């Protein structure tokens, strides 16, 4: 089973008032989802965000955002450049492919040497 991990793309400090404690110490983070499996590591196009108050520690959901927070969010969202969606294969994948090619080659070699015959 593949593990999913959110990798941080960008973190921005906002100087807007927190809707919970009215402090001006907010942190806006953008994350990109990565999936790590035994045979491949996949980078997806999915980008998520999270707005957190550094003073009270609460997550601020879009329903409570003010117009200032909304404008800054749109600005920083345009600035975020995620990695391209890609697949990177692991050493286990390449080892498995190499083993399969070697096994097929050995069977073909033994067939041409007459050691293995097709059933009739």
Structure description:
- The protein has 120 residues and is an alpha+beta fold.
- It contains 2 helices and 4 strands; from the N terminus they run βββαβα.
- The protein has helices at 67-79, 91-113, and strands at residues 3-14, 26-36, 40-53, 86-89.
- It has a 4-stranded antiparallel sheet with strand order 1-2-3-4.
- The protein is rod-shaped and about 85 Å long.
Strand content: 25-35%
Strands of the widest sheet, in order across it, are: 1-2-3-4
Count the E strands: 4
| Count of discrete alpha- or pi-helical segments spanning 4 or more residues | 2
Q: What series of H and E elements makes up the topology?
A: EEEHEH
Q: Roughly how many Å is the radius of gyration?
A: 26 Å
CA distance, first residue to last residue: 43 Å
Unreliable sequence segments? none
Shape: rod-shaped
The overall pLDDT average reads: 90
Approximate helicity band = 25-40%
GO molecular function, one term: ATP binding
Protein name: ABC transporter ATP-binding protein
Transmembrane segments: 92-112
Keywords: ATP-binding, Membrane, Nucleotide-binding, Transmembrane, Transmembrane helix
Task: Describe this protein with a few key phrases.
120 residues, alpha+beta, 2 domains, four-stranded antiparallel sheet, 2 helices, rod-shaped
Summarize the structure.
With 120 residues, the chain is an alpha+beta fold.
């Amino acid at each position: 089973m593949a593990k999913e991990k959110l990798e941080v793309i960008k973190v921005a400090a906002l100087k807007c008032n927190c809707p919970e404690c009215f402090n001006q110490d907010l942190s806006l983070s953008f994350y990109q989802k990565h999936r790590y499996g035994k045979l491949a590591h996949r980078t997806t196009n999915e980008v998520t965000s999270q707005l957190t108050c550094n003073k009270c520690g609460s997550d601020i959901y879009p329903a409570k955002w003010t117009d200032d927070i909304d404008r800054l969010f749109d600005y920083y969202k345009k600035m975020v450049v995620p990695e391209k969606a890609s697949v990177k294969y692991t050493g286990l994948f390449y080892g498995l492919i190499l083993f399969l090619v070697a096994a097929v080659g050995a069977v073909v070699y033994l067939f041409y040497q007459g050691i293995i015959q097709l059933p009739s």
